[in-house]
Design goal:
CATH topology of chain A: Sufe protein. Chain: A
Order of helices and strands of chain A: HHEEEHHHE
Number of helices of chain A: 5
CATH class of chain A: Alpha Beta
CATH architecture of chain A: Alpha-Beta Complex
Shape of chain B: globular
Strand content of chain A: 15-25%
Distance between the termini of chain B: 47 Å
Number of strands of chain B: 17
Largest sheet of chain A: 4 strands, mixed
Number of strands of chain A: 4
Number of domains of chain A: 1
Number of domains of chain B: 2
Oligomer: heterodimer
Strand content of chain B: 15-25%
Low-confidence stretches of chain A: none
């Protein structure tokens, strides 16, 4: 699989059409809005913690298929793991979607499980922000008290 | 009966013009159009963002740097005289292009955005104060919203907005209701970049003038599509960008009526905009130099002149007639695709088609089209209030120029069907 077919593969289209954990959590411990001012993608991430554990997570909002599928897959990946594990996952995921596609180094895909489906994004520099938007929001949520707002334009590394 | 006859005569004339318009020959003038993107012929439909450049413009820039480059208005040497001559000749071309009364009314700026900011910073700061009102429209580009918001914030003035209907047409009755004794300025877009609407700006200007209110026209999207005549429109200010009229980026022009320009304080201080400087007092240079501080963008001014020459040679009668056919065909073909909706269906439209899918986000549409070699703009097009008005996050916009073909419209339609196929929409 390469290019467009990889980007819009079945799993991603499915998560876009039937997003998981697409729900508002009333009285969530943490609530973060993630938005991309350049394209208007806008999501709210709700997190409930039990100590260091992400007990429950939900998201709502609107955006392109990549941003929505990525948000959906992220919620399934981080539910039930610790804050530290989630941050490590974000680092790996970020490395995956921002990697230089001309290098053969795709070693991380396997250990990322279903998140690896988004590996194709790296071939589309304009879409990296779409894939990482929800993750930036989650990162913001895990590192703030209560409510916060995260913008893709705060992340220098993705400005290509 | 007479009316019907003359209408059909008009239609016939337009068809003839379109038939006479040799688009393949025109395309030969634009080297970039020959390239392939992702292995497919480039279909460039992002002309509202920027137009491509004909060889004549590229050659003019090369010629300038190879044989004419020098600073202007200050050297007595040969090259400086040549560069000054070419620079001022370009001003004359812009004057003719807009049919301004005098070359002194043409001020070179970086583009439409800077032109609007210049008027806001000079005219606006001097003549607009607390509780005064500025009128803009619901379909402005951010560049004709934010500067006025900044001024309102600074002065305690108010921004009023002419609303539009569901087709994307301004409501003139509502506009008239907005005009009152507090209104000090009107700034309206001629052609909407995201909807394609051609606004009835002559009427808008007339209504404002009945109350002695000056009007600025944002001409960024009109200058490549329709012949502009600032004297006939009677607008007080008009701004456009060279790069949307087949010229280089980073250059544009502001037209202002002499009576206003003379009352306005300078925009920036520096060289070239003074007639004498002492530490006690500086007297400013005459128009237009009062507004052109520092070494200007000489090469691109001259390049913009070449772009204007090019478009004038092709001729606006032929361009307008041909683009009308393109728009008609595109509207017909694209609205026939199930699940696709056109945003912006005004009676009077330029060749811009903004699209939304019921179930596919514009960004995904853009990526899939790009893979087919088709360049469209996706997003809010720097008109977020327009998106909010229509309750959509973004559109995929195909904006045409006279070098686009009916076959390219077909390619776009095929691309959109591919989007549907991938998304099962």
């Amino acid at each position: 699989m390469s290019g467009l077919n990889e980007l819009y593969q079945e799993l991603i289209l499915d998560h876009n059409k039937n997003p998981r954990n697409f729900k508002k959590i009333e009285n969530a411990d943490k609530l973060v809005e993630g938005y991309n001012p350049l394209c208007g993608d806008h999501y709210t991430i709700y997190v409930n913690m039990a100590g260091d554990l992400i007990k429950d997570i939900g998201f709502q909002g609107a955006g392109c298929a990549i941003s929505k599928a990525s948000a959906s897959m992220m919620t399934t990946a981080v539910k039930g793991i610790t804050k530290k594990e989630a941050e490590e996952l974000f680092t790996k995921f970020h490395a995956l979607v921002t990697r230089d596609v001309h290098d053969d180094n795709e070693a991380n895909i396997e250990e990322l499980g279903c998140l690896g489906a988004l590996a194709g994004v790296a071939e589309f520099p304009a879409r990296i922000k779409c894939a990482s938007l929800a993750w930036h929001a989650l990162h913001g949520a895990l590192n703030s008290e209560g409510k916060a707002v995260v913008s893709t334009e705060d992340s220098e590394k993705e400005k290509k | 009966m007479m009316k019907t006859q003359s209408q059909s005569a008009v239609a016939e004339a337009e068809n003839t013009a379109a038939a006479l318009f040799d688009v393949q020959r025109i395309r030969e003038d634009f080297p970039i159009l020959k390239q392939k993107v992702h292995g497919k012929p480039l279909v460039y439909l992002d002309n509202a963002a920027t137009s491509q450049k004909p060889q004549a413009v590229i050659d003019t820039l090369t010629r300038y740097y190879v044989g004419q480059n020098a600073n202007i208005h200050r050297g007595v040497h040969y090259l400086s005289e040549i560069a000054t001559y070419e620079y001022e000749k370009a001003r004359g071309k812009v004057k003719l292009f807009l049919n301004a009364a005098d070359s002194r009314e043409i001020i070179f700026v970086r583009g439409t955005t800077e032109g609007i900011n210049l008027v806001k910073d000079t005219y606006g700061r001097k003549f607009i104060g607390k509780d005064d009102e500025i009128i803009i429209s619901a379909m402005e580009h951010h560049s004709n919203i934010v500067p006025w918001q900044l001024l309102c914030e600074e002065k305690g003035a108010k921004l009023r907005v002419i609303p539009m209907n569901d087709r994307g047409e301004l409501l003139l009755d509502e506009y008239e209701k907005l005009l009152n004794e507090h209104t000090k300025f009107v700034s309206v877009v001629y052609v909407s970049n995201s909807l394609g609407t051609i606004n009835p700006i002559k009427k808008i200007i007339q209504r404002a003038h009945e109350r002695g209110i000056p009007v600025l026209i944002d001409g960024a999207q009109v200058a490549s599509h329709l012949k502009v005549d600032v004297q006939n429109l009677d607008c007080d200010f008009f701004v456009f960008s060279g790069h949307k009229v087949f010229g280089p980026t980073g250059i544009g022009a502001l037209y202002g009526k002499t009576k206003y320009l003379e009352q306005m304080p300078p925009y920036q201080g520096g060289g070239d905009m003074i007639s004498s400087v002492t530490f006690e007092k500086t007297t400013y240079n005459v128009l237009p130099y009062k507004f052109e501080a520092g070494t200007p963008n000489i090469a691109d001014v001259i390049g913009m002149g070449a772009g204007i020459d090019y478009v004038t040679t092709v001729g606006f009668d032929a361009i307008t007639a041909y683009e009308k056919e393109l728009l008609k065909y595109a509207t017909e073909v694209l609205s026939g695709i199930e699940g696709v909706r056109i945003i912006g269906t005004a009676e009077e439209k330029a060749a811009v088609v903004s699209l939304v899918f019921d179930s596919v986000h514009a960004h995904d549409v853009g990526t899939i089209l790009d893979n087919e070699g088709i360049a469209v703009r996706t997003g809010h097009h720097c008109t977020q209030p327009v998106m909010q008005r229509f309750g959509i996050p973004a559109t995929a916009r195909a904006s045409f120029a006279f070098y686009n073909t009916m076959e390219e419209v077909d390619a776009l339609a095929r691309g959109l069907r591919k989007v549907k196929e991938i998304f099962g929409a």
